[in-house]
Amino acid sequence: MLFQEFLRAPTRVATVTASSDALVTAMLAPHRLDGPRVVVELGAGTGRVTGALQGHLRGTGRHIAVEINPVLAERLADRHPGVTVVRADAARLPAVLGEHGVDRADAIVSLLPWAAYAAAPVPRLVADALAPSGTFTQATLRGFHLLAPARRQAEDLRAAFGSLTASPTVWRNLPPARVLIGREPH
């Protein structure tokens, strides 16, 4: 299904394969997910991260998953009834949170493609939506970090966060990836 949706809208679907367990683990490791947390997932796709987040939250807190693709959003809502699935563009993050009574998120996890970053100030929106102690993670494909869109993405994230680090390469993902970790939102 993911490959089919990628072929329909390659600039809006970030990849042709679902995230591996290893990448999902790397994406969630930087976050505190115990207790009643508010977690926002951007570009939820097929729900690989969604399922793992639900396992960590164990019925506590709130989980809002934002997915622009209508087919993927519907499938996600069917598979994860405990998650608030919102079919929207990540550029609408402030409005989405407001519509659901959320002031600030404790964690934001993103699988957004570069096209989303080109179309909206995603780093600024995310930093404004995070609690001061919140954490942001973004999966990014390894080997592409020297390309202009990846460099712009990293520059914008550095401007929005006091701390931006990268995980080691997750080789057990197709394609290999790493996770950018933003803390101390400005």
From TrEMBL:
<dbReference type="GO" id="GO:0032259">
    <property type="term" value="P:methylation"/>
</dbReference>
<dbReference type="InterPro" id="IPR029063">
    <property type="entry name" value="SAM-dependent_MTases_sf"/>
</dbReference>
<protein>
    <submittedName>
        <fullName>Methyltransferase domain-containing protein</fullName>
    </submittedName>
</protein>
<dbReference type="InterPro" id="IPR041698">
    <property type="entry name" value="Methyltransf_25"/>
</dbReference>
<dbReference type="Pfam" id="PF13649">
    <property type="entry name" value="Methyltransf_25"/>
</dbReference>
<keyword id="KW-0489">Methyltransferase</keyword>
<dbReference type="GO" id="GO:0008168">
    <property type="term" value="F:methyltransferase activity"/>
</dbReference>
<feature type="domain" description="Methyltransferase">
    <location>
        <begin position="39"/>
        <end position="111"/>
    </location>
</feature>
<keyword id="KW-0808">Transferase</keyword>
